[in-house]
Write a structure and sequence with these properties.
single chain, 341 residues, alpha/beta, Rossmann fold, 2 domains, eight-stranded mixed beta sheet, four-stranded antiparallel beta sheet, globular, binds adenosine-5'-diphosphate, binds magnesium ion
């Protein structure tokens, strides 16, 4: 765990955050239904930490990230960000405040191809945000882009090349340089290494960790790949159908998986740990549609521990202390799982 996490200064607090997408049904699109992609998320992100966000595809990870970045407007809830001049809700910023926020938060996507214009050189792609950021002299911009390329272990000269002249790993490093060029505080990495070969993944992960230390960054690291998340995260939040169902420090979560969903999700990965219960739990069926989530606990239809109450009553995310560490879990039978952990 990074040293700067000990002070636990809050960077961002999500309170009851929800993002719904409307889907029109019926002849005249009258009966509007909603895909509840993010559905009542409470989460605190501390300065300098890496928060891993995991869960199966479709559980709302990207939507949560994009809502924080104001690429989607939240349906409900607050996102309180600690700016220099005090905390403000990202959901209702003025235009000027929005520009400040846009500089503080950046995203790295899975596919750098889609975020780099093939018709632009690296310099052209990176220089644009710098211009917006107020760096008017071309000489200065070339200097900064060169420095950024070196920071991501690439040669300065590469700035005059086009994206198709690079390998996937190199393009992802350019994507990272681009995210960093406006000096952000919070970087959301959305499946940032998922498309890369395993050997390249390790290089890019090491680079991300190095940059984090050097620049005092905070990461939200979104991935469906649990082996990556254990390696990189200070804390891990597990999402299921738009909700956080478990949250703990990374080591604690890997040692004590309290939610049956986390247990099932994690039992699918090979782990070299003698303390782990190696029994494999097979997840039944697919993630249900977030347009029509099951009653009670959203996980109950796939849960191997399901009892009557789970079908009727939705469990809250409750706080427990395990070996002096806070551990949150949304399961009616959390106590039972703690005993067995
Ligand atoms: N722009 C959108 N419009 C409508 N539905 C969307 C949109 N983006 C995502 N969804 C739906 O929201 C749910 C969550 O998606 P997403 O956030 O991409 O999940 P994840 O990143 O965990 O795979 C999915 O059911 C997805 O189909
Ligand atoms: Mg996604």
């Amino acid at each position: 765990m990074s040293n700067n996490l000990r002070e636990k200064e809050v960077l961002l607090t999500l309170n009851g955050l929800a993002t719904y997408f409307p889907i029109k049904k019926g002849l005249f699109g009258k009966n509007t239904q909603y895909v509840k992609a993010v559905n009542n998320v409470d989460l605190t992100i501390y300065k300098g930490e890496t928060l891993g966000l995991v869960g199966e595809s479709g559980c709302g990870k990207t939507t949560l990230g994009k809502t924080i970045l104001q690429l989607y407007k939240p349906t409900a809830g607050e996102m309180i960000y600690s700016f220099e001049d005090g905390p403000k809700n990202l959901a209702n910023l003025s235009k000027e405040e929005m520009n400040v926020a846009r500089q503080k938060m950046q995203i790295v996507f899975q596919d750098p191809q889609s975020s780099l214009n093939p018709a632009f050189t690296v310099y052209q792609s990176l220089s644009d945000p710098l211009k917006k950021f107020g760096i008017k002299s071309r000489k200065e911009r070339r200097q900064i882009v060169g420095d950024l390329l070196e920071a991501v272990n690439m040669r300065r000269e590469y700035m005059d090349r086009y994206p198709n002249e690079f390998s996937g790993g190199q393009r992802q490093r350019i994507g990272i340089a681009r995210a960093l060029c406006v000096n952000p505080e919070l970087v959301i990495c959305d499946e940032a290494v998922s498309a890369l070969d395993v050997s390249i993944q390790a290089q890019v992960l090491n680079l991300l960790m190095k940059l984090k230390e050097e620049r005092g960054l905070t990461y939200i690291f979104i991935t469906h790949d649990l082996s990556v998340v254990e390696y990189i995260s200070d804390r891990v939040a597990v999402m299921y159908l738009g909700r956080v169902v478990e949250l703990a420090e990374s080591e604690d979560l890997f040692a004590n998986r309290l939610h049956p969903y986390t247990q099932a999700l994690f039992s699918a990965i090979p782990v070299a740990d003698i303390n782990h219960n190696k029994k494999r739990i097979v997840l039944k069926g697919d993630v249900p549609s977030p347009a029509n989530p099951p009653s009670g606990c959203h996980f109950h239809k796939r849960c191997f521990m399901c009892k009557e109450v789970c079908k009727e009553k939705e469990p809250e995310l409750r706080r427990f202390e395990i070996d002096g560490k806070e551990h949150y879990v949304a399961c009616h039978f959390a106590e039972e799982n703690i005993k067995n952990a």
